[in-house]
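seq as requested:
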Amino acid sequence: MEPIISIRQLVKSYGTKEVLKNINLDVFPGQVVGYIGPNGAGKSTTVKILCGLINDFEGSVTIKNVDMKQDPTKAKKLIGYVPESAELYDVLTPMEFLTFMGNLYELDEKICNNRIVKLLAAFGLDNNIDQRMESFSKGMRQKVLIASGILHNPDIIILDEPLGGLDANSVIVIKDLINRLAKEGKTIFYCSHMMDIVEKVSDRIILIDNGNIVADGSIEELRAQQGDQSLEKIFSHLTNTNTDGASDDLMNAFN
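struct tokens:
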């Protein structure tokens, strides 16, 4: 099976700081990849490169055999991106905003409208479809963002902390959606600090630290290598993060 995402000798620097250090990675169709790491490890930079938001990098990134540097527009059409937060057009309704997004992806009008109605209904926003988004809560906005990221039925869906502001029922819907999309052959690239969610939804976990991949495998494989412990403990060990006693130190600040 050919990889749907192929990264070779990826290096990215900001000035003298090297953020990504010779990353090599293949991701295959149908995989749910949990991409985790501490703040500043290079996660966001990787995501921005995969989405075509950063193009001044060394090495190569191909999306379904399309070179991101040579044909970024074609590569972007294969990707759906849901950021942690983004500015929406408050004066628009969800229907208007998602129709606009559908036009950007050159979707057939009838197909686009049908998908919009079904997606918003699935997220419980069917009664808000023609309501201006200036009055929406963070969770409602996030649902619209998620809908916009999958509206064009992309082969690859990149989720960067997608659950912020969502209620418990919506989180369940998103987790089920991830599983169903993967079964249909979609590739999910999931970035999050919520280790329990990553552990549950991912069939492959990649841990990046200081610009290097330090672990890559299923949760069972990581446990076999690091001992039978939670992903949080494995994360802490591999990134040399000592959290023991941290809560005591915080409480001492009030004494």
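Residues 168-183 form the longest helix (16 residues).
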